[in-house]
Specification:
Blueprint lengths: L31 H20 L7 H9 L5 H35 L11 H14 L6 H22 L7 H25 L1 H11 L8 H20 L1 H7 L3 H6 L4 H23 L5 H13 L3 H25 L8 H18 L7
Length: about 350
Protein backbone atom coordinates (compact mmCIF):
# COMPACT_ATOMS: atom_id res chain seq x y z
CA UNK A 1 0.00 0.00 0.00
CA UNK A 2 1.39 3.43 -0.88
CA UNK A 3 0.38 7.08 -0.74
CA UNK A 4 0.27 9.07 -3.97
CA UNK A 5 2.91 11.78 -4.09
CA UNK A 6 0.40 14.32 -5.30
CA UNK A 7 -1.79 13.72 -2.26
CA UNK A 8 0.91 14.71 0.24
CA UNK A 9 1.11 18.34 1.41
CA UNK A 10 3.38 20.22 -0.94
CA UNK A 11 4.06 17.10 -2.97
CA UNK A 12 4.54 17.49 -6.72
CA UNK A 13 4.73 14.74 -9.28
CA UNK A 14 8.24 14.33 -10.72
CA UNK A 15 8.55 15.49 -14.34
CA UNK A 16 7.89 12.84 -16.91
CA UNK A 17 6.11 10.48 -14.51
CA UNK A 18 3.06 8.79 -15.94
CA UNK A 19 -0.28 9.99 -14.71
CA UNK A 20 -2.40 7.85 -12.42
CA UNK A 21 -4.71 5.29 -13.98
CA UNK A 22 -8.34 6.36 -13.97
CA UNK A 23 -10.17 5.56 -10.78
CA UNK A 24 -13.34 3.50 -10.90
CA UNK A 25 -16.52 5.47 -11.14
CA UNK A 26 -18.58 5.96 -8.07
CA UNK A 27 -20.96 3.12 -7.54
CA UNK A 28 -18.51 0.48 -8.78
CA UNK A 29 -16.33 -1.49 -6.41
CA UNK A 30 -13.00 -3.09 -7.36
CA UNK A 31 -13.59 -5.75 -4.73
CA UNK A 32 -16.79 -7.10 -6.32
CA UNK A 33 -15.25 -9.44 -8.95
CA UNK A 34 -12.90 -11.00 -6.40
CA UNK A 35 -15.69 -11.53 -3.88
CA UNK A 36 -18.06 -13.00 -6.46
CA UNK A 37 -15.37 -15.38 -7.68
CA UNK A 38 -14.67 -16.38 -4.08
CA UNK A 39 -18.34 -17.13 -3.43
CA UNK A 40 -18.56 -19.28 -6.56
CA UNK A 41 -15.39 -21.18 -5.69
CA UNK A 42 -16.54 -21.69 -2.10
CA UNK A 43 -19.88 -23.12 -3.24
CA UNK A 44 -18.06 -25.46 -5.60
CA UNK A 45 -15.58 -26.58 -2.94
CA UNK A 46 -18.40 -27.27 -0.48
CA UNK A 47 -20.26 -29.33 -3.09
CA UNK A 48 -17.05 -31.24 -3.84
CA UNK A 49 -16.50 -31.93 -0.14
CA UNK A 50 -20.02 -33.33 0.21
CA UNK A 51 -19.76 -35.47 -2.92
CA UNK A 52 -16.23 -36.84 -3.15
CA UNK A 53 -14.71 -39.34 -0.78
CA UNK A 54 -13.92 -42.99 -0.26
CA UNK A 55 -17.61 -43.64 -0.97
CA UNK A 56 -18.59 -41.68 -4.06
CA UNK A 57 -22.11 -40.26 -3.79
CA UNK A 58 -23.73 -38.61 -6.84
CA UNK A 59 -24.70 -34.95 -6.42
CA UNK A 60 -28.40 -35.79 -6.76
CA UNK A 61 -28.25 -38.18 -3.82
CA UNK A 62 -26.32 -35.63 -1.79
CA UNK A 63 -29.04 -33.07 -2.43
CA UNK A 64 -31.73 -35.56 -1.47
CA UNK A 65 -29.86 -36.52 1.71
CA UNK A 66 -29.70 -32.88 2.76
CA UNK A 67 -33.31 -31.93 1.98
CA UNK A 68 -35.33 -35.14 2.24
CA UNK A 69 -33.38 -37.95 3.90
CA UNK A 70 -34.83 -41.45 3.77
CA UNK A 71 -32.50 -43.16 6.23
CA UNK A 72 -30.21 -44.82 3.70
CA UNK A 73 -26.50 -45.41 4.20
CA UNK A 74 -25.67 -42.54 1.86
CA UNK A 75 -27.91 -40.22 3.86
CA UNK A 76 -26.01 -41.12 7.02
CA UNK A 77 -22.64 -40.53 5.37
CA UNK A 78 -23.68 -37.12 4.05
CA UNK A 79 -25.50 -35.81 7.12
CA UNK A 80 -23.41 -37.30 9.93
CA UNK A 81 -19.93 -37.30 8.43
CA UNK A 82 -19.47 -35.05 5.42
CA UNK A 83 -21.76 -32.16 6.32
CA UNK A 84 -20.15 -31.49 9.74
CA UNK A 85 -16.72 -31.96 8.16
CA UNK A 86 -17.52 -29.42 5.46
CA UNK A 87 -18.95 -26.87 7.89
CA UNK A 88 -15.93 -27.22 10.15
CA UNK A 89 -13.66 -26.81 7.12
CA UNK A 90 -15.42 -23.58 6.15
CA UNK A 91 -15.24 -22.16 9.67
CA UNK A 92 -11.60 -23.10 10.18
CA UNK A 93 -10.65 -21.85 6.71
CA UNK A 94 -12.26 -18.45 7.32
CA UNK A 95 -10.45 -18.17 10.66
CA UNK A 96 -7.02 -19.13 9.33
CA UNK A 97 -7.32 -16.96 6.21
CA UNK A 98 -8.32 -13.87 8.16
CA UNK A 99 -5.74 -14.56 10.85
CA UNK A 100 -2.99 -14.84 8.26
CA UNK A 101 -3.99 -11.62 6.49
CA UNK A 102 -4.14 -9.69 9.78
CA UNK A 103 -0.79 -11.14 10.85
CA UNK A 104 0.99 -10.20 7.63
CA UNK A 105 -0.49 -6.70 7.66
CA UNK A 106 0.31 -6.17 11.34
CA UNK A 107 3.96 -7.25 11.05
CA UNK A 108 4.43 -5.94 7.48
CA UNK A 109 6.03 -9.31 6.75
CA UNK A 110 4.81 -11.23 3.68
CA UNK A 111 6.20 -14.48 5.11
CA UNK A 112 4.41 -14.19 8.45
CA UNK A 113 2.11 -16.98 9.58
CA UNK A 114 -0.37 -16.91 12.51
CA UNK A 115 1.91 -19.34 14.30
CA UNK A 116 4.45 -16.52 14.55
CA UNK A 117 2.53 -15.15 17.54
CA UNK A 118 2.89 -18.47 19.36
CA UNK A 119 -0.73 -19.51 18.86
CA UNK A 120 0.04 -23.04 17.65
CA UNK A 121 2.85 -23.53 20.15
CA UNK A 122 0.72 -22.31 23.05
CA UNK A 123 -2.17 -24.55 22.09
CA UNK A 124 0.15 -27.55 21.71
CA UNK A 125 1.79 -26.93 25.08
CA UNK A 126 -1.58 -26.67 26.80
CA UNK A 127 -2.90 -29.84 25.18
CA UNK A 128 0.21 -31.87 25.99
CA UNK A 129 -0.06 -30.66 29.60
CA UNK A 130 -3.70 -31.68 29.74
CA UNK A 131 -2.89 -35.15 28.41
CA UNK A 132 0.34 -35.87 30.24
CA UNK A 133 -0.29 -34.17 33.59
CA UNK A 134 -4.06 -34.01 34.03
CA UNK A 135 -5.09 -37.13 32.12
CA UNK A 136 -7.56 -35.42 29.77
CA UNK A 137 -8.59 -37.72 26.91
CA UNK A 138 -11.61 -36.13 25.19
CA UNK A 139 -11.60 -33.67 22.32
CA UNK A 140 -13.87 -31.40 24.36
CA UNK A 141 -11.21 -31.24 27.05
CA UNK A 142 -8.49 -30.57 24.49
CA UNK A 143 -10.57 -27.73 23.11
CA UNK A 144 -10.58 -25.54 26.19
CA UNK A 145 -6.96 -26.21 27.07
CA UNK A 146 -5.91 -25.36 23.53
CA UNK A 147 -7.84 -22.09 23.61
CA UNK A 148 -6.33 -21.11 26.94
CA UNK A 149 -2.82 -22.02 25.81
CA UNK A 150 -3.16 -20.06 22.57
CA UNK A 151 -4.37 -16.98 24.46
CA UNK A 152 -1.60 -17.15 27.08
CA UNK A 153 1.09 -17.58 24.42
CA UNK A 154 -0.21 -14.60 22.43
CA UNK A 155 -0.22 -12.46 25.59
CA UNK A 156 3.35 -13.58 26.36
CA UNK A 157 4.53 -12.65 22.86
CA UNK A 158 2.85 -9.26 23.10
CA UNK A 159 4.44 -8.63 26.51
CA UNK A 160 7.92 -9.72 25.41
CA UNK A 161 7.60 -7.69 22.22
CA UNK A 162 6.81 -4.59 24.24
CA UNK A 163 3.14 -3.96 24.83
CA UNK A 164 3.61 -0.20 24.59
CA UNK A 165 6.37 -0.05 22.01
CA UNK A 166 5.82 -3.21 19.98
CA UNK A 167 7.24 -3.21 16.48
CA UNK A 168 6.94 -5.84 13.75
CA UNK A 169 10.54 -6.97 14.30
CA UNK A 170 10.15 -7.22 18.09
CA UNK A 171 6.92 -9.17 17.74
CA UNK A 172 8.56 -11.59 15.30
CA UNK A 173 11.57 -12.12 17.58
CA UNK A 174 9.37 -12.58 20.64
CA UNK A 175 7.18 -15.05 18.76
CA UNK A 176 10.21 -17.05 17.63
CA UNK A 177 11.52 -17.24 21.19
CA UNK A 178 8.18 -18.31 22.66
CA UNK A 179 7.67 -20.90 19.91
CA UNK A 180 11.11 -22.43 20.53
CA UNK A 181 10.58 -22.63 24.30
CA UNK A 182 7.08 -24.10 24.10
CA UNK A 183 7.86 -26.66 21.41
CA UNK A 184 10.90 -27.73 23.46
CA UNK A 185 8.58 -28.30 26.40
CA UNK A 186 6.13 -30.23 24.23
CA UNK A 187 8.82 -32.51 22.82
CA UNK A 188 10.34 -33.11 26.26
CA UNK A 189 7.04 -34.09 27.84
CA UNK A 190 6.18 -36.39 24.94
CA UNK A 191 9.50 -38.20 25.20
CA UNK A 192 9.06 -38.70 28.93
CA UNK A 193 5.52 -40.05 28.67
CA UNK A 194 4.52 -42.46 25.89
CA UNK A 195 0.82 -42.08 26.73
CA UNK A 196 1.18 -38.36 26.16
CA UNK A 197 2.86 -39.03 22.82
CA UNK A 198 -0.01 -41.27 21.69
CA UNK A 199 -2.73 -38.88 22.84
CA UNK A 200 -1.00 -35.85 21.37
CA UNK A 201 -0.64 -37.58 18.02
CA UNK A 202 -4.43 -37.74 17.60
CA UNK A 203 -4.82 -34.01 18.20
CA UNK A 204 -1.73 -32.57 16.54
CA UNK A 205 -2.25 -34.28 13.17
CA UNK A 206 -4.32 -31.36 11.84
CA UNK A 207 -7.46 -32.89 10.38
CA UNK A 208 -11.13 -32.19 9.74
CA UNK A 209 -12.10 -35.84 10.18
CA UNK A 210 -13.53 -37.14 13.42
CA UNK A 211 -14.56 -33.73 14.74
CA UNK A 212 -18.08 -33.55 16.13
CA UNK A 213 -20.44 -30.78 15.08
CA UNK A 214 -20.99 -29.99 18.77
CA UNK A 215 -17.36 -28.84 18.98
CA UNK A 216 -18.04 -26.39 16.16
CA UNK A 217 -21.00 -24.96 18.03
CA UNK A 218 -18.79 -24.48 21.07
CA UNK A 219 -16.09 -22.60 19.15
CA UNK A 220 -18.39 -20.62 16.83
CA UNK A 221 -18.91 -17.64 19.21
CA UNK A 222 -15.14 -17.18 19.54
CA UNK A 223 -14.58 -17.46 15.80
CA UNK A 224 -17.45 -15.06 15.09
CA UNK A 225 -16.02 -12.51 17.52
CA UNK A 226 -12.62 -12.83 15.86
CA UNK A 227 -14.10 -12.38 12.36
CA UNK A 228 -16.03 -9.26 13.36
CA UNK A 229 -13.01 -7.77 15.13
CA UNK A 230 -10.68 -8.46 12.20
CA UNK A 231 -13.06 -6.89 9.68
CA UNK A 232 -13.58 -3.87 11.95
CA UNK A 233 -9.79 -3.36 12.06
CA UNK A 234 -9.44 -3.28 8.26
CA UNK A 235 -9.17 0.51 8.00
CA UNK A 236 -6.72 1.11 10.91
CA UNK A 237 -4.61 -1.86 9.76
CA UNK A 238 -4.43 -0.27 6.30
CA UNK A 239 -3.13 2.92 7.87
CA UNK A 240 -0.69 1.00 10.06
CA UNK A 241 0.73 -0.75 6.99
CA UNK A 242 2.00 2.67 5.83
CA UNK A 243 4.13 2.97 8.96
CA UNK A 244 3.46 4.18 12.47
CA UNK A 245 4.11 7.85 11.72
CA UNK A 246 1.70 7.87 8.78
CA UNK A 247 -0.86 5.94 10.83
CA UNK A 248 -0.73 8.47 13.67
CA UNK A 249 -1.00 11.32 11.17
CA UNK A 250 -4.17 9.70 9.84
CA UNK A 251 -5.63 9.50 13.34
CA UNK A 252 -5.02 5.80 13.99
CA UNK A 253 -4.40 4.74 17.57
CA UNK A 254 -1.42 2.49 16.91
CA UNK A 255 -1.13 0.76 20.28
CA UNK A 256 -4.83 -0.05 20.47
CA UNK A 257 -4.83 -1.32 16.89
CA UNK A 258 -1.91 -3.67 17.62
CA UNK A 259 -3.50 -5.06 20.77
CA UNK A 260 -6.86 -5.62 19.09
CA UNK A 261 -5.18 -7.22 16.08
CA UNK A 262 -3.35 -9.67 18.36
CA UNK A 263 -6.66 -10.40 20.09
CA UNK A 264 -8.34 -11.08 16.74
CA UNK A 265 -5.53 -13.43 15.68
CA UNK A 266 -5.77 -15.26 19.00
CA UNK A 267 -9.52 -15.74 18.72
CA UNK A 268 -9.37 -16.85 15.08
CA UNK A 269 -6.31 -19.06 15.05
CA UNK A 270 -6.65 -20.23 18.64
CA UNK A 271 -10.21 -21.37 18.00
CA UNK A 272 -9.28 -23.05 14.70
CA UNK A 273 -6.27 -24.80 16.23
CA UNK A 274 -8.27 -25.97 19.22
CA UNK A 275 -10.94 -27.40 16.92
CA UNK A 276 -8.81 -29.22 14.34
CA UNK A 277 -5.26 -29.19 15.60
CA UNK A 278 -2.48 -27.15 13.99
CA UNK A 279 -3.06 -26.72 10.24
CA UNK A 280 -0.18 -24.79 8.78
CA UNK A 281 0.41 -22.55 5.77
CA UNK A 282 -3.24 -21.65 5.04
CA UNK A 283 -2.62 -18.26 6.62
CA UNK A 284 0.54 -17.88 4.55
CA UNK A 285 -0.70 -18.98 1.13
CA UNK A 286 -4.13 -17.39 0.89
CA UNK A 287 -3.22 -13.70 1.50
CA UNK A 288 -0.70 -13.84 -1.34
CA UNK A 289 -3.27 -15.21 -3.78
CA UNK A 290 -5.89 -12.74 -2.56
CA UNK A 291 -3.57 -9.76 -3.07
CA UNK A 292 -3.23 -10.66 -6.73
CA UNK A 293 -7.01 -10.45 -7.14
CA UNK A 294 -8.10 -7.87 -4.58
CA UNK A 295 -5.06 -5.69 -4.00
CA UNK A 296 -3.23 -4.99 -0.72
CA UNK A 297 -5.89 -2.77 0.90
CA UNK A 298 -7.09 -4.67 4.01
CA UNK A 299 -10.64 -3.47 3.39
CA UNK A 300 -10.66 -5.64 0.26
CA UNK A 301 -8.02 -8.18 1.25
CA UNK A 302 -9.65 -9.45 4.45
CA UNK A 303 -13.06 -10.35 2.93
CA UNK A 304 -11.31 -12.08 0.01
CA UNK A 305 -9.14 -14.12 2.37
CA UNK A 306 -12.24 -15.14 4.31
CA UNK A 307 -13.63 -16.66 1.09
CA UNK A 308 -10.54 -18.15 -0.55
CA UNK A 309 -9.05 -19.80 2.56
CA UNK A 310 -11.93 -22.27 3.11
CA UNK A 311 -11.79 -23.08 -0.62
CA UNK A 312 -8.15 -24.10 -0.31
CA UNK A 313 -8.78 -26.02 2.90
CA UNK A 314 -11.76 -27.97 1.55
CA UNK A 315 -10.01 -28.82 -1.73
CA UNK A 316 -6.92 -29.96 0.20
CA UNK A 317 -9.15 -32.13 2.39
CA UNK A 318 -10.77 -33.71 -0.69
CA UNK A 319 -7.33 -34.39 -2.21
CA UNK A 320 -6.31 -36.10 1.02
CA UNK A 321 -9.38 -38.35 0.86
CA UNK A 322 -8.81 -39.66 -2.66
CA UNK A 323 -5.05 -39.71 -3.24
CA UNK A 324 -4.41 -43.03 -1.44
CA UNK A 325 -7.77 -44.84 -1.25
CA UNK A 326 -9.16 -46.36 0.88
CA UNK A 327 -6.95 -44.54 3.40
CA UNK A 328 -6.84 -40.77 3.91
CA UNK A 329 -4.07 -38.20 4.20
CA UNK A 330 -4.82 -35.56 6.83
CA UNK A 331 -5.48 -32.09 5.51
CA UNK A 332 -2.64 -30.66 7.61
CA UNK A 333 -0.19 -32.83 5.69
CA UNK A 334 -1.56 -31.70 2.32
CA UNK A 335 -1.46 -28.00 3.20
CA UNK A 336 2.05 -28.39 4.65
CA UNK A 337 3.25 -29.86 1.35
CA UNK A 338 1.65 -27.10 -0.71
CA UNK A 339 2.71 -24.40 1.70
CA UNK A 340 6.28 -25.62 1.79
CA UNK A 341 6.55 -25.27 -1.98
CA UNK A 342 5.10 -21.75 -1.85
CA UNK A 343 7.34 -20.76 1.04
CA UNK A 344 10.45 -21.82 -0.90
CA UNK A 345 9.26 -19.84 -3.91
CA UNK A 346 8.63 -16.71 -1.82
CA UNK A 347 12.01 -16.91 -0.15
CA UNK A 348 13.72 -17.21 -3.53
CA UNK A 349 12.02 -14.10 -4.87
CA UNK A 350 14.14 -11.00 -4.41
CA UNK A 351 11.11 -8.74 -4.12
CA UNK A 352 9.21 -10.78 -1.55
CA UNK A 353 9.44 -7.93 0.95
CA UNK A 354 7.48 -5.67 -1.40
CA UNK A 355 4.38 -7.91 -1.51
Amino acid sequence: MSIEVSSLPGGNRPPGEASDPPRPRSGTSPRTPGLLLGLVLLAGAAALSLTVGTEHIPPGQVWSALLSPTGTEHDAIVRELRLPRTLIGIAVGVALGLGGAVMQTLTRNPLADPGLLGVNAGASAAVVTAIGVLGVTSFTGYLWFALAGAALAAVAVQALGGARHATPVRLALAGTAVNAALFGYVNGLQLCNLNTLDGMRHWSVGTLAGRDADLLLTVTPLLAAGVLLALALARPLGALALGEDHARALGTRVRRTRVLAVLAITLLCGGATALCGPIGFIGLMVPHAARALCGPDPRRLLPCCALYAPVLLLVSDVVGRVVVPPSEIEVGTVTAFLGGLLFIQLVRRRKAAQL
